[in-house]
Amino acid sequence: MSRQERMEKDNVWRVIASLAIPTALITLVMVIYNMADVFFIGKTGDSRMVNAIAVCMPVFTIVQAFGTLIGSGGCTAISVALGKGDREKSRQISSFCFYLCLGLGLILTLGLNIFAPQMIKMLGASASYSDFAILYLRILAFGCPVMMFSNAFVNIARADGSIKEPMIANLIGTLVNIVLDPIFILVFNLGVAGAAVATVIGNVISILILIKGLQKKSDFISFRAKDLSLKKDVVLKPLALGLPIASGTLLMSVSYMIMNNLLIGVGDNAQGAFGIVRSVMLLSTTTQLGICMGVQPAVSYCYGRKNIRRVKEFIVKTGTVCMVFGLLVALLCIGGRDLILNAFIADESIVLFGREMIVGCLITAPVYAIYQTAVTFLQATEWAMWSTINTLLRQGIVLIPAMLILNAAFGFGGLVFSFAVTDIVAALVGTVLLVRRMKKADPGRSDSFRDLAGAREERIA
């Protein structure tokens, strides 16, 4: 049975496990990747360098957002094309995505190096550590093309339901970064410069391995200029489909900038604590995203085949998995927050701020799962506009006012719960939109998701 046949005919739980577990591991590896710099810089005991890395995080979230825009949209568009048997279009889409990554990456490298001081000031950096932040930003900027390519084509490589190549590439790249971080930071005493160099090298190794793996998929993935097409459906469709996740990441970066600026009034170490807690929060949110994105090709393929009942079944069961995972993460991280924070840095002030932040940021991790399920599968079934709207609500339209209002009303104690308030609103909106989408996709069948949750599994001999 081919990968495409398994996505349409195999046991749903088995398909979810085969697609979601490896992709969740890939995203978990990416979280570890993001945490490595903060962790090893924390071992220097210099809170200024921890604060510098924390304040730069929104910039590279933006770089990842562009990669996600290209990769997530490209993955969905290629999966739908494969479901329709159109391999020529899938080659055209992948070639367009490749050259777009290269062009945008080079523009970001140039822009971040020229405007680094202005960017650091806008991010809310304090004068006490701005030199560290500028150095870290400029070195990492040289890795923008490879980071963007890695983020994009790790997703695109999954378009046919396969996960081996992206998983191996991410794992080896992360291991290289983790090995080089302590050598450059602690042994060679390079500080933030060492952390940045290790990250760039890790990404280079990752894409070299990824490219080698993608060569096996040359029947539907291409880097060749002759396959590059600027036709409307080749250019606009992947960008529109990738917009929900990418726009949310971009707006979240703006929200993080505002958070950093609000934390200036609390203290530099509050910014450092937020950088650590943000890394911990990514453990939950990014893994939930990975679970949903892992199943996304199956949903898109079944949608392309007009098997709407199976689409619904994938949505219900994937959402359940995400909620259970979110609950476990919330319990473990809130219960063990002192242990987690002290593992990063033994600074009493940072740990004190971090204790409150972990509770506020992770208490609604199970609720976030509902939002993420809705956003991903609205996109996977070509309702990109509504998926984008819900994403923008969660990542900024609701979050930014919530931060400003709660900070004004309750100070730091209210500010840390702005993410929780936003998660609840976004989950409610996402649920309504997803139910409406399924009604429109299959008006002749039962609209209830409840009948699917208890439905008997189809078993293929």
Proportion of residues in extended strands: under 5%
- Count of folded domains: 1
Output the radius of gyration: 21 Å
Alpha-carbon distance between the termini? 11 Å
Q: Percent of residues in helical segments? A: over 70%
Structural class computed from helices and strand pairing: mainly alpha
Tally the beta strands. 0
Q: In a nutshell, what does this entry contain?
A:
This protein has helices at residues 3-9, 12-42, 47-83, 87-114, 116-123, 130-141, 144-156, 164-187, 191-214, 232-264, 268-304, 308-335, 337-344, 348-362, 365-380, 384-397, 399-410, 412-415, 418-441, 450-453. By secondary structure, it is mainly α. The model is unreliable at 446-461 (pLDDT under 50).
Outline the fold blueprint:
Layout: H1 3-9, H2 12-42, H3 47-83, H4 87-114, H5 116-123, H6 130-141, H7 144-156, H8 164-187, H9 191-214, H10 232-264, H11 268-304, H12 308-335, H13 337-344, H14 348-362, H15 365-380, H16 384-397, H17 399-410, H18 412-415, H19 418-441, H20 450-453
Task: Kindly describe this structure.
The chain is an all-alpha fold. The chain has one domain (3-453). Helices cover 82% and strands 0% of the residues. It has helices spanning 3-9, 12-42, 47-83, 87-114, 116-123, 130-141, 144-156, 164-187, 191-214, 232-264, 268-304, 308-335, 337-344, 348-362, 365-380, 384-397, 399-410, 412-415, 418-441, 450-453. The longest helix has 37 residues, at 47-83. The radius of gyration is 21 Å and the shape is globular. Mean pLDDT is 88; it is low at 446-461.
